Amino acid sequence: MPVSDSVDREAGTETDSGADGDDRPEGLPINELFYSLQGEGTLAGVPSVFVRTSGCNLRCWFCDSYHTSWEPTHAWLGLEEILAEIESHEADHVVLTGGEPLLHEESVALLEALDDRSYHTTVETNGTIYRDAPIDLASISPKLESSTPTPERDPKGDGEWEQRHEDDRIDLEALAALVEDYEFQLKFVVTDAEDMPEILALLDDLRDAADVPIPNDDVLLMPEGATRDRLAETRTRVAELAMDYGFRYTPRLHVDLWNDAPET
Ligand code: SF4
């Protein structure tokens, strides 16, 4: 369901971060809502409905959902419409993703409504925002320095977001609260071995800050790449890094199956 194609773009504008405006009806900025297989993480392969919110507080240069971050759409769906669309599919799992879905306070109402209906919910988050909500799996993807949109890597070419992204990409307090309160997986997008010292340092800091253990089994290395061609360059070395360090490797099944097609 390509929500952004059917939206009234005059209905309001989002802020830079895509956060909710005061005059919105109850609902969420939604970029896409579709049925597919979970492609990443410990639930890879599980049929799931994906609710992709629009708007992100970061700007990773490699973002594979460009229209939720760099150029957020202004689509808007009411909660009842979202729930009706979810219930039209044969799935017990719902993945709330983005963008950064926890930017939006209304994500809590959606998660509560899904919990009432006995769905299993995964929230895909960059780990910079904590919200108290019925989340069955917090899939936390802290963004490494290699994600920063330097002028050379910025898809818009001006480096405007470089400093803001760098300042905001890690929030240890929010990360600790998420791992303490929810079943979690920590999913790192890895390009090459140069990312590993930063991952190890962040894990040390998080293990000091959080009151719960963070076993290596819950740390996932995921190859950077939103196309089959790019994944072919990164996945073998990331798989070898997972073995070297004793972390889990996660595929990107949706890229293997459908390349970079939308709504997968
Ligand atoms: S945090 Fe996620 S949604 Fe936001 S810019 Fe980075 S990859 Fe895209």
From TrEMBL:
Residues 1-26, 140-166 are annotated as: Disordered. S-adenosyl-L-methionine binds at F62, C63, D64, G99, S141, P142, K143. Residues 1-12, 151-166 have a biased composition (Basic and acidic residues). Residues 43-260 form the Radical SAM core domain. CDD domains: Radical_SAM (cd01335). Mg(2+) binds at S65. It catalyses: 6-carboxy-5,6,7,8-tetrahydropterin + H(+) = 7-carboxy-7-carbaguanine + NH4(+). GO terms for molecular function: 4 iron, 4 sulfur cluster binding; carbon-nitrogen lyase activity; magnesium ion binding; S-adenosyl-L-methionine binding. Keywords: 4Fe-4S, Iron, Iron-sulfur, Lyase, Magnesium, Metal-binding, S-adenosyl-L-methionine. [4Fe-4S] cluster binds at C56, C60, C63. Its cofactor is [4Fe-4S] cluster; Mg(2+); S-adenosyl-L-methionine. Binds 1 [4Fe-4S] cluster. The cluster is coordinated with 3 cysteines and an exchangeable S-adenosyl-L-methionine. Pathway: Purine metabolism; 7-cyano-7-deazaguanine biosynthesis. Its EC number is 4.3.99.3. Belongs to the radical SAM superfamily. 7-carboxy-7-deazaguanine synthase family. Homodimer. Catalyzes the complex heterocyclic radical-mediated conversion of 6-carboxy-5,6,7,8-tetrahydropterin (CPH4) to 7-carboxy-7-deazaguanine (CDG), a step common to the biosynthetic pathways of all 7-deazapurine-containing compounds. This is 7-carboxy-7-deazaguanine synthase. It comes from Natrinema versiforme JCM 10478.
